[in-house]
Amino acid sequence: MKRLLLAVSLAVLAAGLPAAALAAEPVKKDAEASNEGSLKVWEWANFLILVGGLGYLIRKHAGPFYAARAAGIGKDLAESERVAKDAEARSAEVERRLASLDAEIAALRAESQKGAAAEVERFAQQTAAEIAKIGANGEQEIQAAQKAARLGLQRYAAQLAVDLAEQKVRARMDASTEDRLVGSFVRDLHSPAGKS
Q1: Distance between terminal CA atoms of the chain?
Q2: Cβ neighbours of 11 (radius 10 Å)
Q3: Is 90 exceeded by the pLDDT of residue 83?
Q4: Are 11 and 54 in contact (CB under 8 A)?
């Protein structure tokens, strides 16, 4: 690019020198007409040299410059297409993950609900087992209390029977009956010893 600018500047300078030299000479009126024709020729010559030099320089330097520029633009386009495809792939991956995230969340919810239902069922079973265990322990305690109450009642009834029998025996007992019983007891005591 710098070379192209330098070449254009030199061509403009070269084309402008003869015109400046001719413009600096004093011009006379009668010589003006003859010089005017030669000046026009020199102007056209300078113009053609300028155009030819510029054309040459443009042809020589512009082609590679524009080719390099086109290659750079093509490279940038290819890179932008690659980046766009990469972004689309990332976007598709994110969309896929979001779609699967909804499914994963639904699966986790279902699993947690199933786990909660299983926990409730397990808790209900444990509660039922504890209730049954407490009921069985209560039944055993009731049976033990009933047995203890029966035994206590039997003892009380036996004590009452003994007390009642004692009262009846005392009521029937008088001094002569007492003497007869004591004598019979004493005879029984001596009798077995005398027999053996």
Answers
A1: 159
A2: 18
A3: yes
A4: yes
Cβ contacts of 167 within 8 Å, gap of 6 or more = none
| Integer Cα distance of 152 and 99 in angstroms | 78
How many Å apart are CA 181 and CA 177, to the nearest integer?
6
Percent of the chain with pLDDT over 70: 80
Helix (H) or strand (E) holding 29: helix 29-57
Report the distance separating Cα 133 and Cα 11, nearest Å. Answer: 115
CA distance 167 to 172: 9
Nearest-angstrom CA–CA distance, 43 and 195: 189
Q: Is the dihedral of CA 9, 15, 16, 17 positive or negative?
A: positive
CA distances from 124 to 29, 61, 115, 132, 171 (A): 129, 92, 14, 12, 68
108-162 pLDDT, tens per residue?
889 999 998 999 999 899 999 999 999 888 889 899 999 998 999 899 989 988 8
Place of tokens 């009933």: 146
Q: Which residue has the higher pLDDT, 174 or 13?
A: 174
CA angle (145, 152, 166) in 5-degree steps: 170
